[in-house]
Amino acid sequence: MAPPLLEVRDLRVEFPTRRGVLTALDGVSFAIEAGEVLGVVGESGAGKSMTGAAIIGLIEPPGRIAGGQILLEGRRIDDLPYERLRRIRGREIGAIFQDPLTTLNPLYTVGEQLEETMLTHLPIGREEARRRAVGWLERVGIPAAAQRIGSYPHEFSGGMRQRVVIALALCAEPKLVIADEPTTALDVSIQAQIIALLKGLTRERGTAVMLITHDMGVIAETADRVAVMYAGRIAEIGPVREVVKHPRHPYTAGLMASIPPLDRRVERLAQIEGAMPRLSEIPPGCAFHPRCPQAFDRCRRERPGLLDAGGTRAACWLHLDRAGRHA
Amino acid sequence: MRDGADPAAPMLEVEDLAKHFDVSRPLLHRLLSGEGRRILRAVDGVSFAIPKGTTLSLVGESGCGKSTVARLVVGLYTPTRGRVRFAGHDLHEARADAAQRRRMQMIFQDPYASLNPRWRVRDIIAEPIRAFGLVKGRAAERERVAELLTHVGLSPLDGEKYPHEFSGGQRQRISIARALSSSPEFLVCDEPTSALDVSVQAQILNLMKALQRELGLTYLFISHNLAVVRQVSDRVGVMYLGRLVELAPAETLFTAPRHPYTRALLDAVPDLGMTGRQRVPVGGEVPSPIAPPPGCAFHPRCPLADARCRAERPALLPAGEAVVACHAVEEGRDGAARREPAGALAPDAA
């Protein structure tokens, strides 16, 4: 059997600080198949962006990968020298970030940026690159693409700019796209357009997508599977329908219940008491136990691994029975 | 002096409120290039009233003018046109009078930027108490601060700490405690939860609702998040390019939206229930408020637009329990389209 397109094994990211080493990611493991959209959700500081940054090799020093492996089509990429990784990034892994202005170079036209990216990564000439650049702008829904190719990023509106960023991330035909809050800076109407676009393009080309967002609504309609992160660990992972409708981990359940519904008014929203711990104060055992209404003795002592919870896998001792004795 | 105040008057009345910003290039540049003045009509003729003890929410996409309305209402901007009456008083007079001014406070979006990082939390919360001279003596002040901290779900001991020692949600609690410290009756809340994670958002929304019940507060709530608005509002105003396009009781607005823009907005929201369902995007983008389209500003994106919509600006007219600014609704042309998904909206109009 072919290895998954992306496999992350037991990933650990550490930040040495004056007061000691902080563990930002702790034992994160998951895989993404070709053509699949994996959603990654969690609250700020849960480690979702850190996971994306680790895969594309963009962890800000002094942060570093302290353990585990990242494999692209079965080949390790976490230990590659900078130059090799740089070539993979862009050619095989595309990235879309929240703020299109930080991704685009304000001094070059969007056409030049698209052409340059393709010339760097694809075996094509300038003519062909220009032709494809227009094609990409059309594909992401930019009207009058042939004229807009000579425009600078500041001449586009926010929604249009994010389309350019998507074109830029996809134009080298990567196998994997890491999209970190791609629609968070956009209004709902534009957000819907961008999501539809991203989904269509990936379906059409079999690109795998890791979609990082705090917006469960976006995940629910876009992702095939979803990983819920908490305090640098995966709390639950499974098919999006299962995780959203029948969450197995008490944290996921609390998270889902706290989302205000659009179709009715509730007198009081369900809330999880307290807040996610800081990296310097992660409790022993299950990181969620101080806030968990169902915590028992073992949760305070021993950290649960991802256990089979019937439909999803959850890092929660409540599911030990089903999972049998292996943990 | 303030005799004009009617006890039964709404907490806030806004009439034909407008705020225009001059965003022209410098004079020399205009002379050389022959360019005219450029006026951005951020808010252009908005009227509403908020009865005491209720919540009115303003929703819309970025640039629709909702935050500008919030700033006009608390007096951070001077209106270009129109009137704001607070508890029966002209806002200008009310702002000049400390006894009136303390009755109105604001909560901002960003709990990281709105708290002074060099002040202890107890000083942040006590500032309005001191400014208005509300309690006499250090001991009474300390007691009041402790009471406020407890009220918003923090510990009195937290008063000794600095803002950076708190998470985003706790900071927003501090902002709320500060806003409550002058015992206001009216709070303007500008996106109070949009910088917060969803589980923390639930805590803050629950707190705000509880405080409203206990203290009889009146809220003007500004948000782009329709699901949040549904949870907190008695009435909802939908803004587009500086104007209200629909104003209705919350239940009516969410169950039977009338304006094509309201329907499109509701349709565009991703919802958890719709796993696997394709969302229908609204076509196009909000046009520039510097050069808004003639007639109804929404017509380039509207599936119901006709010649009249392109030429004549619709007025807010009653339609059932709502008021709606739409020729199609007025003429009864919206009936058929109401059963269609708003995805019938014209594709990209840009």
Automatic annotation (TrEMBL), chain A:
Q: Where in the cell is it found?
A: Cell inner membrane
Q: Which Gene3D superfamilies match?
A: P-loop containing nucleotide triphosphate hydrolases (3.40.50.300)
- Please list the residue ranges annotated as the ABC transporter domain: 6-256
The record describes its membrane topology as: Peripheral membrane protein
Q: Which UniProt keywords apply?
A: ATP-binding, Cell membrane, Membrane, Nucleotide-binding, Transport
Classification via SMART domains: AAA
Q: Name one GO molecular function term.
A: ATP binding
Q: Which InterPro entries match?
A: AAA+_ATPase, ABC_Ni/Peptide_Import, ABC_transporter-like_ATP-bd, ABC_transporter-like_CS, Oligopep_ABC_C, P-loop_NTPase
In this entry, which stretches build a coiled coil? none
Name the source's superkingdom: Bacteria
- SUPFAM superfamilies cross-referenced by the UniProt entry: P-loop containing nucleoside triphosphate hydrolases
**Family annotation (PANTHER family):** DIPEPTIDE TRANSPORT ATP-BINDING PROTEIN DPPD (PTHR43297:SF2), OLIGOPEPTIDE TRANSPORT ATP-BINDING PROTEIN APPD (PTHR43297)
What's this protein's family per the entry?
Answer: Belongs to the ABC transporter superfamily.
Which NCBIfam families has this protein been placed in?
A: oligo_HPY (TIGR01727)
The name this protein carries in UniProt is ABC transporter ATP-binding protein
Automatic annotation (TrEMBL), chain B:
**Which NCBIfam families does the UniProt record give?**
oligo_HPY
Which InterPro entries does the UniProt record give? AAA+_ATPase, ABC_transp_ATP-bind, ABC_transporter-like_ATP-bd, ABC_transporter-like_CS, Oligopep_ABC_C, P-loop_NTPase
Q: Which domain of life is it from?
A: Bacteria
Domain (ABC transporter) ranges: 12-266
- Record's keyword terms, sorted: ATP-binding, Nucleotide-binding, Transport
This one is known as ATP-binding cassette domain-containing protein
**Pfam families from the xrefs?**
ABC_tran, oligo_HPY
Could you tell me the membrane topology recorded for this protein? Peripheral membrane protein
Where does the UniProt entry say this protein principally localizes? membrane
Which protein family is named in the record?
Belongs to the ABC transporter superfamily.
A molecular function (GO) held by this record is: ATP binding
Intracellular or extracellular location(s):
Cell inner membrane
Organism of origin is Caldovatus aquaticus
Q: Does the keyword 4Fe-4S apply?
A: no
